[in-house]
Write a structure and sequence with these properties.
mainly beta; about 50% strand; about 120 residues
């Protein structure tokens, strides 16, 4: 069992930065790949970034490439998402999710989400 708790969201002006954290409980966190998703009001949940168990394989959505960075600390059981050059269209609830099978369609655990609001 893994529990995920996101933090670090907030209100920021366009061009600013935020760092999100996804803290996991459970001894087997290092066995899980982790991804960030986001959902804006009235829209479907979209993939943002993913990182595998070791941190060597990383993927980003085209919309965030060059602006967002994902990494993980398996000692601290935490995955981070550094978000720079934020745009109003980045406004959404951001969720982290964990999966045992890297690249699988489904995710085994989800956090409760953290709100990110970017003002113009």
């Amino acid at each position: 069992q893994v529990q995920l708790v996101e933090s670090g969201g907030g209100l920021v002006q366009a061009g600013g930065s935020l760092r999100l954290s996804c803290a996991a409980s459970g001894r087997t966190f290092s066995s899980y790949a982790v991804a960030w998703f986001r959902q804006a009001p009235g829209k479907e949940r979209d993939f943002v970034a993913a990182i595998n168990l070791s941190g060597r394989n990383i993927y980003y959505a085209d919309s965030v490439k060059g602006r967002f960075t994902i990494w993980r600390d398996n000692v601290q059981n935490t995955v981070y998402l550094q978000m720079n050059s934020l745009k109003p269209e980045d406004t959404a609830v951001y969720y982290c999710a964990a999966q045992l099978k890297w690249g699988g369609v489904s995710y085994d655990y989800w956090g409760q989400g953290t709100q990110v609001t970017v003002s113009s």
